[in-house]
């Protein structure tokens, strides 16, 4: 077709070949590690190969994709095809939390943990329908830039930069902790030390090329994450059901689980509607039946959580800059379709892993005498992943505690796989966590450099300065993340949920109104963002001190409507927005025509050109 | 480039498409998990029906929703001449 020449020329036609080479190289590393293991090489070396091998490949991609132009550094040159954009978006949305914590939560809490997984892909659906195409049409490099231009106000831009940094920082802290957790298991080192390793690694990969390095290195990370998930689950599915489709064939296992749970007398519990008791970090007992719903998360909390999660993911300031990297509006929409597909596949595989692990525990451990446990369970006990709490002779279901975030790779240990497959599962979790971590770092550094450093005096900075500032900001963001991740106490999943709930209440309402409601003005959006942030943070504090019965992760369910109301009320009370703001919203709504931000940059370059 | 007098109908059409995409999905997001337990004594492909609908079904609905949205919205863009012209 003639009409698509310009657009297809932007896209690198050899992308598939490059990623094929990467996949082959990664497979070679895994096979080499398998051979080394069989040859009797020390475990330390095998671990090091499985950790440093993929990391060296990411770093090589990241450094090879260095960038000098702001368009490359902040938007990957707008040349990412829909599929790869969706792949990267999906894996960075899930991150280490999706891989480690969600598998563990599913394993321990069963059906109730699906409120998170529903929120994850629903968020991508909302993002695709409500936000992504319009942000692509505007083409701003960061969310605060978009809001500032859309509402024609520098105040909005600065306030948005401050407000939206908060959820990004929380997510960054959580993902750094997850990455450090998996790396600590991989290398057998302390978690505190590994926080430094992963943050330095994530920063180093994206430092040279910003969004460009991030995109292509995260594509590689996504491939590693998907492979590491698919390989163990597929092998077990083949053993269990002769069909290599763990996503579709875990039904029979589910039936065995239900039967065994009834036989072992696992109680049916019903939580009050607003209860929200997902398993925390560390050892958690198996208390309820897998398939029974609303045993630890109440029915109302389940629905609210899936919506808060969806709103938080949809308006996540760390993920939305990715919509600017596609060649056009149509691809921006389509990439969200791919993202939903990738995330959907992952979120169908994780419960299969949780179910296989659970059936192994129920069949081979529960009901055994304490001294006659299977070898793999003794290994898990020695590693500190599982523990038997009760002193009774016969092991009961409620007597077993399990490390939540270890469930993903504990399956490979429990199934008696070679150690390398355990390290493969860990490498996948590290890859996903690093993808989310670098996405957050790049987004936050872009906000600091573009909206705070250059946004305050105006946009006149030359191209080289903009990129250099972003690099310095990236280093600074890395240091802040490192300090926060070392200092932050408690459960990283909780930190992530706070980040999501804050993004749902501070970012979602204002972004929604900025695109779908013409009447919103600068005052309304400032009021909305500040109300969302302050009200939700206040509710989280109240909830954590026990003053109110609302779980802190659900604070966004009240913060979001409050922020929406504040934005509408403040807009109606103040004058209608100016001509400029209306022009922009009218252009943002129509896919055709030049990308607004690129046009603005082109015109300002023409204006600043020295006279001939 | 879009005609001046096409902007209003285009946006009306786009809003309607947004609602027809999101409302059924939002409804399914609420209803399917709530009724999962009640449907679990029936089975499909060996998987309890309620679990299957709330886990597999909802993911399929999400994907169909976004895929249909992409196609429908692209058709709307072309109908009103609002599509990208390169």
Overview of this structure, please?
The complex is a heterodimer of chains A (612) and B (86). Chain A is 71% helix and 2% strand. By secondary structure, chain A is an all-alpha fold. Chain A has a single domain (15-604), classed as Sodium/glucose cotransporter, CATH 1.20.1730.10. In chain A, strands 1-3-2 form a 3-stranded antiparallel beta sheet. In chain A, helix 8 runs antiparallel to helix 17 and helix 10 (211-241) runs antiparallel to helix 17 (419-453). The radius of gyration of chain A is 24 Å and the shape is globular. The model of chain A is unreliable at 1-5 (pLDDT under 50). Chain B is mainly alpha-helical. Chain B has one domain. Chain B contains 3 helices and 2 strands, in the order ααββα. A two-stranded antiparallel sheet of chain B has the order 1-2. In chain B, a hairpin with a 2-residue loop joins strand 1 and strand 2. In chain B, helix 1 (7-34) runs antiparallel to helix 3. The radius of gyration of chain B is 18 Å and the shape is elongated. The mean pLDDT of chain B is 90. The interface between A and B is large, with 55 and 48 residues.
Task: List the topology elements.
The complex is a heterodimer of chains A (612) and B (86).
Chain A lengths: L4 H6 L4 H24 L4 H22 L5 H6 L6 H28 L4 H25 L4 H8 L3 H34 L3 H17 L3 H31 L4 H4 L1 H13 L19 E3 L13 H16 L14 H36 L10 H9 L2 E3 L11 E4 L3 H8 L4 H35 L9 H25 L4 H15 L1 H9 L5 H24 L9 H19 L5 H10 L7 H13 L4
Antiparallel strand pairs in A: 1-3, 2-3
Helix pairs in contact in A: 2-3, 2-10, 2-17, 3-9, 3-10, 3-17, 5-6, 5-8, 5-10, 5-14, 5-17, 6-13, 6-14, 7-8, 8-9, 8-17, 8-18, 8-19, 8-21, 9-17, 9-18, 10-14, 10-17, 12-14, 13-19, 14-16, 16-17, 17-18, 19-21, 19-22, 20-21, 20-22, 21-22
Chain B lengths: L6 H28 L1 H4 L3 E2 L2 E2 H31 L7
Antiparallel strand pairs in B: 1-2
Helix pairs in contact in B: 1-3
